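Q: What structure does this chain adopt?
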Amino acid sequence: MSHIHTFTLLNKVIDDTFDVDLLHEYTLSILVSSGTFQFCVVHTAKNRCVMLEHYEYPHQNNVVSLLAVLKEIYDYNSYLNAGFWRCIKLNIKNLKFSLVPNALFAESYAKDILSVNCTLAETEALYYYKHSGNDTINVFATEQAIVEWFKKMYANKLVDVVHHTSSMMEGVLQYPLENQAKSVFVNVEDGIATIAVRDHNNLIFINNFKFVTANDLLYYTLFVYDGLDLNIDSIPLILMGNIQKNSDFYQRLYKYIRHIYFSQRPNGLKFGYKFDEIGEHHYFGLYNTILC
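A:
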């Protein structure tokens, strides 16, 4: 009797150049949330993406059920269990983060800083990532058992833990813009809209908004435009993630914002023809994890 998985494999791409004997030369980037698990593999020396997989599952509301799904995915995929990757990056996607100027950050106050923005559970641990390019510390929290599970899976390797807003920030700051002082970036994925605003080479805003309907997404996007006094007729909106041109989400945004574009893949990464079946604007946060 065949086993019925609790997850759905949405995308799977293996590049012609992928070689199981070269895992020690590959960086494994993982993005995990309560409803999605994604990973990509990059040949570090060649900056070439050689594998990508995307799994989706019903939102898991507790750590035990999420760990059960993750174990099932790892049992399903033989490559993930390999322990000799060159580098492993774990990207946590949730709403619990806060940005702090480097000069004002003290590790002893990290919990107090984050508690201003969100409620922390006793089972959650604090982590932080320093953005070298803009002197910012990203303080975030996630279930400690999740991180410990991944560290146990890769016991012989250091697992770098980052927040999905950090990979978004790094990707936005490196995104090629032509003669555009300001741009708004919206990453739509797993019921979360991550909205960032860039002014020349500076990030001036980033936040997450949970949404369900197209009207929700439109509201939060216009809220950012209005709050930062951005002109909807001149400041472009760059979309990325799980959003299509024929969707209600896109159509609602297009009705109000004059200039809308889909994002490109990161300039620093190479992709073979097999990735052509995936829209370039997908997996922006996952691809840019390698920048952290």
